[in-house]
Fold these 2 entries.
Entry 1:
Amino acid sequence: MELKSNDHFDAVIIGCGMSGLAAAIRLAMFGRKVIILEKHNAPGGLNSFYSFDGRKFDVGLHAVTNFVRPGVKGKPLTKLFRQLRIDRDEFALCEQKCSKVAFPDVELNFSNDFELLVSEIEKAFPNQIDNFQKLVKAIHDFNEFDLEDKDRSAKKIISQYITDPLLVDMLLLPLMYYGSAKENDMEFGQFVIMFKSIYQEGFARPFEGVRTIIKTLIDKYRDLGGMRKMKCAVKKIITQNNNITALELENGDTITADHVISSIGLVETLQLCNDQKTKAEQSNIGKLSFVETITILDKQPKELGWNDTIIFFNDWQNFEYQKPKELVDPRSGVICMPNNYQYENNNELDEGVLRVTAMANYDQWTSLDEDHYAKQKKIWYDTLALKAMSFLKPINNDSTNDKDKLDNLKKQTVYVDMFTPRTITKFTSHLDGAIYGAPNKVKNGKTHLDNLYICGTDQGFLGIIGAMLSGISMANYHILQKN
Ligand SMILES: Cc1cc2nc3c(=O)[nH]c(=O)nc-3n(C[C@H](O)[C@H](O)[C@H](O)COP(=O)(O)OP(=O)(O)OC[C@H]3O[C@@H](n4cnc5c(N)ncnc54)[C@H](O)[C@@H]3O)c2cc1C
């Protein structure tokens, strides 16, 4: 679309990720003149997609969390469909098979049926089952969507119920890996959101991956007459007397708006403002970043006896969730096999896919020159592949040593890719490759400016469903309900 200098909008949305798209749809639905400005040429933000060598990849999608079956009312997914007027068939969500949390001597399987997790805890931690049920009741009674709620340590609160630190670690690992911006803890409200979305609701995935979801959102927005300008970064937010007076764009144009919702992150947004607030927020840059390896196999994982959808692993005596001292911390991580969903008509993805995620150190990855960067990627690819193999059935029963195990995997491998914290920042502009953004969130989305609001990751609702709900809530709360 053509954008002219001095164009005026009811609302500008910065960023065309999940939260920005959802906020924009909501505003367009109520007749607001709204535009999304996006720095890159592809929509989807942190959870976009790309093609390489004729293969289609999701940037990161392991699972759409918050899955509930048709007919279940009052849950985040159903609220999302209702607010965006999307038919649930459009997302084409297919349920996971089974996932697990695997620690050195104990495993907990879980699926989209919460009772499986309850029975697994009863078996592995018989002394804790009553405590667990009390925790579940406290989670049920908690209002995680209270936008004015204060920060509290999840670890402290959980430990008041569950007295075995191993079970605390096992319950926290998947929730932290899929959403905690804080080292070694979570904010309790976020713990509740993640507990419900992962253990009590569940995982699903469209057969075509994240592009199905993005296409649905883009089509919806276009049909509502919403405007979108790609490859159009916001360079500066010009302010006066606690208000935004204009937005300066990378191409030199200047536009104005009554309201601005930014989905690019709290500190990232404040850094665009030409006032003093920025300095105070520097300490709120997230420290947690990740690497992920992607291995394309010439077989379906189930042919190798790998039937889990997602394995959250830890092989250390306790679980440490913090920025590693080395380039990567391979002691814990996530193994995901997107093939292992219950696709309609027993459809199968064309190739086998094995994704392995682990915590990584942004500063170390960005300090490498090109040559060392490529070398380190290879080294850490092998380390993580080997680690994954220790949680998966051996490819050949006679593979006894690490070299054999790796060689056997490589014989089944047709393609590999890997992203690092450096890739994340390059493609999403999130400071320090921090996928889950700032440790201290702004739940009510308010900033120091009266007409600038934060949505998405740094507002505090998590994952792609959370991000969309965040966009919806911020558009409703700050713009639609005000008028
Ligand atoms: C590798 C990976 C795997 C993940 N896996 C899952 C998963 O399996 N399940 C799940 O639920 N969630 C997952 N997530 C998290 C999920 O993707 C995010 O929570 C969600 O997409 C965040 O959306 P958002 O709209 O808040 O932000 P973003 O997606 O970050 O959107 C912000 C957008 O703003 C743009 N932008 C930045 N600066 C500017 C500027 N100055 N001007 C204009 N535009 C700008 C960016 O390019 C970006 O498109 C994953 C994330 C990653 C990175």
Entry 2:
Amino acid sequence: MSGKTALSKSLILKGMQCPKALYLQKNPPAFEFPPQPDLEAKFRAGNEVGILAQQLFPGGTEVPFEGLSVLEQIEQTRQLIDDGAEVIYEASFEYDGIFVKVDILVKDGDAWQIHEVKMSTSVKEVNLDDAAIQFYVLGNCGLLISGAYLVHINNQYVRQGEIDVKQLFAGVDVQEEAFLRQANLPKIIDDLRSALQGDEPQIDIGPHCSDPYDCDFVPYCWQHIPDNSVFDLKGRGIKKFDYYDRGIIHFEDIPLDDLNKAQRQQVEATLNEEDSTDPKAVKAFLDTLWYPLYHLDFETFNSAIPKFNDTRPYQQVPFQFSLHVQHDAGAEPEHYEFLAEPDVDPRRQLIEQLLDLIPEDGCVLTYNQTFEKGVLRALAELFPDLAGAIDKRLENVRDLMVPFRRRDVYRWQMRGSYSIKEVLPAMVPELSYSGMEIADGMAAMQAYHDMCALEDGVELEQLRKAMLEYCRLDTLAMVRILGELENAIK
Ligand code: SF4
């Protein structure tokens, strides 16, 4: 290896987003970062996609990451090339202290094709830099490159039986762009290395903290941003960093005339700790409901590799519902629930049970109807024999989010949001998601994947219990919030 500071492709990409992020990665600050629970799951999912993509060019040899030093990985790659390998997975190269691994390297006459696998459904700007770094290092290692491809997920693919890798993945030729971009790399890399020599770079927060990726160091760099800052303003139309750059950070400092109506209400309500209710509008909303009332919530999962037949990559597949049924206003509800068995397509069973529970003329209450209606429509499309019955329920869907989105009811603790996660603690403080093992939809989705990976046993039972508790709270929250709306107009 060269004597220069060793860098990998991902470190260079990090540095291109923000040199300070690269510096902090190499020189971790004395700071306690909150855990990132989904990191391992993301890594696992990426790995699974990468391994499947290898089938696009079967019969290759993998240069493993684990168990080999960087030098050994590079030597093994060189050996495979010398021995006439046609396809190499995770081929490893180093030039000028920059180490890269190529997902799939394919022999093409005297030259080689680079195939870089991505979990996204299209090619993004940052992926072109990614390909350029590969191109730069391999070219300087003496390889003739005849093609550079970004292989991404084709979200139009519908699974039928075994996964068809040729349909699941789509390759985009980015050779020309990669070639052009590599010309800038020596200077970029030199600048990054210089930044690493000195003290922590003095780079302020900015749009680069989340573009193209959410930076890992946000908790560290954003410590000086207080609660109720310009960054907490909801809605569009405000260039937040323009205000920050002018020293306008606290709600108190933001000129109210610059804000739209909803933002103004958010700021004023927060500063004065003031709530508001429009009883007429709330009553008009309540008048659109009837009893018995069916409070419904679905949980869904998605995955890059479709898990079941008749699903596309990243399609939301329902695996759970919770249903609270109220026969009269203010009545204690009955509760029903469904949770899929691991690894079994749950959709037919789920919708049949739901149709049994909700009569054709039942009023179905959701929180954010777009989501629940989308799930129901997809099920109607999948099961034409049930489409008529599902359509009848669809006609009767109402949305409890409406009075909060319209700000018919506003509590200053909602922080400008109408998400149920903000509305519930503001409206019903005694009911809360905090402290729950599963406390949001993302965690529920991950729990589904974990459930499918677990063997029968105590751990599986505990996980299923936590999943049921979470989904149950979602509809119980709706019952209680509705009760508060009814109280508000009394
Ligand atoms: S949080 Fe922002 S300023 Fe800090 S390292 Fe990351 S991108 Fe740079």
